[in-house]
Structures are given as C-alpha cells and as structure tokens.
Amino acid sequence: MIQFGDQSYRLSDPIVIAMIGGACLTFLVLYLLTSAARRAGKSANAVASVAQQMNQLALNMNALGQGQQQLAGNIQTVSDAQAHAQIRVIQTMETRLAEVQAQMSERLADNALKSAYALAEMQERMKDTLTGSSEKTTKSLTELQERLATIDKAQTNIEKLSGDVLSLQDILSNKQTRGAFGEIQLQDIVSKALPSDSYTWQATLSNNRRADCLVHLPNPPGPIVIDAKFPLEAYEALIAAETKAERDRALTALGQAVRGHIRKISESYLIEGETADGALMFLPSEAVYAEIHSRLPHIVREGFNARVWIVSPTTCMATLNTMRAILKDARMREQTGAIRKELALLGSDVDRLVGRVSNLDRHFAQAAKDIEEIKISADKAGKRANRLDHFDFEELDASPNAKIVPLRE
User: Which end of the chain, C or N, has fewer beta carbons within 10 A?
Assistant: First the structure.
C-alpha cells in the first residue's frame, strides 16, 4: 500500500504502476543526462542527439504530468465512489442486521418456550425414571445382599475345603498317615465287594509280617495279601520336575521305589503253603497307577515276574468282584453235601405229603358221598312234609273197612 495524503493506493493499481513507471523513466533520463554530460566533450553530434532527446523527454514529461493530473482526478472520483458505496453497504448491513436480530429474538423466544416445555416433560420423565430406578436399585441391592451372603457362605465353605485339602496334603506327606489313608480307602472298597467273614485286617503271618488285608480264598490259590502302602515321594518329585533332566531323574527314582516295594511285598507276603502264589499292591491314586503303566511298563512286567500285581481303586474293585465269585463258588462246593441231605429230606417230606393228600382226597370223597345221601334223605322228608301240609280230611274213605284214627275229646 502507498499513502498520498488521505488516499491509499495498492501496488497493483494501474495508476500506481504508471507513477512508478514515470519515476523510473525520470531516473533513467537523469542517468542518461549524466552520461551525456560526461561524453559532451567527446562528440558534438552526441550533444545534439542528447538535446533532441531532452526535448523529447521534456515533451514526454509534460505528457506524463498531464496523465498524472488526470490520474489524480480519476483516483479522487474512484475514492468518492468507494466512500459512497461503503456508506450504502454499511446502511444496508445495519438494516439487514436489525432484521436478523429481530428474527433471532423471535426464534430465541420460541426456542426458550419450547425448551421450557421440553424441560418440564423431561423433568417428569426423569422423575418417573428415577422413581423406577430407585425401586429397581433397591431391589437390586437386596438381591446383591442376598448374593453377597451366598458368596460369603461359599467363601466359608471354600476356606473350609482349603483347610481340608491342606489337611489331606499333610496326611499324604507323612508315610504313616499316608499308609493309614490307603488302608481306609482299601477298607471301603473291600467292605463293599466281599462278605465280612471273607477277609481279615492286619493279619499276622507265620513270618511275623503283618498284612494290611488278607482275603481268605480257597485252595487254590489260597489266601491272598493286599498291601496298601505306596511310594509317593518319587511321584511328587516327578510332578514337580521342570526340566527334562529333573523329570528323567524323578522317573528313575519312581521306578526304583516301586521296584523296591514290589520286592518287599514278594519277600514278605508270598509264603508257600500259607498264602497264595501272588499278592496285590494297592495304589489309592489312579494318576500314579496310570503313570507307572504308561511310562514304566518294565516295572509292571517285573511285578508280574515277582507275582505282585499293581492295582488301582478301579482295578482293585474288579479283582475283588472276581474273588467274590470264587468265594461264592467255593462255598457252594462246601455246601454240596448239606444240600444233597436237605434234598433227600425234602423228597421224604414230599412223599409224606403225597400220602396225606391221598388220604385227604379219600376222606373228601366219603364226605361228598355222605353229603349226597343226606341231600336225598332231606329231599324225601321235605316231600312228605309237603303232603301232610296239604292233607284234606273230607276225602277220607267212609267205608267201614277204612282205618280212621278217632279224635279224642
């Protein structure tokens, strides 16, 4: 922008461009005059040319001055027109602004009224909603309290169960208590599978060894021992092992422990002429049983060779059911003589019963004959009584030979 007095002009305005061009031309003329003055002494022809150019430049300067005056008048005219246009625009904008303000006031009033109605309706709905929400919240809190009470009760049960689990871990961590635990589980299985007189707990053998359970099977195979102890430490070490080396060492230790226990059972409970030619090693854990059979099959084969069979609660129940069938068959054989004697006595009783039935049949036949004769006699007596009831005295024979019974006065 260029400021001339009270007027401001833009650099892109043609008048400003013309003025700048005139100024540049003036400077150019001055430069040429200076150059010409320096060369005045060199050539007279150059002086004459410069004079001619100066005259032409003077003419151009006059023309430029007239153009500047005309441009100043045009600028003033444009400035006045812009001022009037700005005044008209300002007046139009003020009028339009007043109209817009009036419309905005009306719309704001309408919106305020609608907002008041909507707010009132919203308050009513909020009141109803809050009332319902309060009731639901109260109900939910009541249910929540009940559920919390249930959760507290469950938590108490869980804590109690945790204590029981810890107690079970304490039991299984001790050899004596673990043996007692195995014996209790074995007692439960044996008592359900066999009659009470077919086994003995803590039976002492001739070698002063005490068997956990001795099942009295007939010969053969003879009484069989069930041992309820099991090596758990090596299995726990196998479960707790993290690296492959630790697992291999624990598995080897488990195999050695089971092998040693098999050897002990074979040496302690297999007595020729007193016990059966085999014994059972009871494992009260299906996991230990599965681990031994899946990862230590050679130990199981060694048990077979030593005539010691490893059983779990499931397989022990199946084995005991087989023993129950053997006991039942043996008892049936033992009772064969008594059964035959009872059958002979039963035959005699049947013969006597047949004779007595024949006698009773004969008595029934005689009684039936007597009853038939009694019926005939009763029939005749009835007929005679009927004739006497209908007897007519006027029909008596009046002849002198007729036998008439005289009536006594």
Answer: C
Query: Measured between alpha carbons, how far is residue 288 from residues 24, 169, 177, 224, 245 in Å?
Result: 112, 16, 18, 23, 20
CA 253 to CA 292: how far, in whole Å? 12
Domains and CATH numbers, the chain: 2-112 (no CATH), 175-334 (3.40.1350)
CA distances from 300 to 295, 307, 310 (A): 10, 10, 7
Which carries the bigger pLDDT value, residue 315 or residue 44? Answer: 315
Q: Helices (H) and strands (E) in the chain — how many of each?
A: 9, 7
What pLDDT digit, counting tens, does each position of 177-204 carry?
455 567 788 888 888 888 888 888 888 8
Q: Enumerate residues 6+ apart whose C-beta is below 8 A from 32.
A: 50, 53
Query: What token pair was written down for 215?
Result: 């099942």
Please give the span between the terminal C-alpha atoms of the chain, in angstroms, as a whole number. 191
- SS3 of 256-286: the string is HHHHHHHHHHHHHHCCCCCCCCCEEEECCCH
The total of other beta-carbon atoms located within 10 Å of residue 342's CB is 11
Beta bridge partners of 8: 3
Contacts of 177 (CB under 8 A, 6+ apart): 170, 171
| Structure-token pair, residue 54 | 């100066």
pLDDT in tens, 368-390: 888 888 888 878 877 777 776 66
Tell me whether residue 79 is exposed, middle or buried, using C-beta atoms within 10 angstroms of its C-beta: 0 to 12, 13 to 18, 19 or more: middle
Q: Which secondary-structure segment (H or E) carries 107?
A: helix 44-173
Radius of gyration of the chain (CA): 69
* Omega of the bond leading into 221 within 30 degrees of 0 (cis): yes
Residues forming beta bridges with residue 309, ordered by sequence position? 280
Q: Which residue, 265, 263, 253, 264, is CA-closest to 296?
A: 253
Confidence of residue 122 (pLDDT cuts 50, 70, 90): confident
Asked whether residue 144 carries a pLDDT value surpassing 70, the answer given is yes
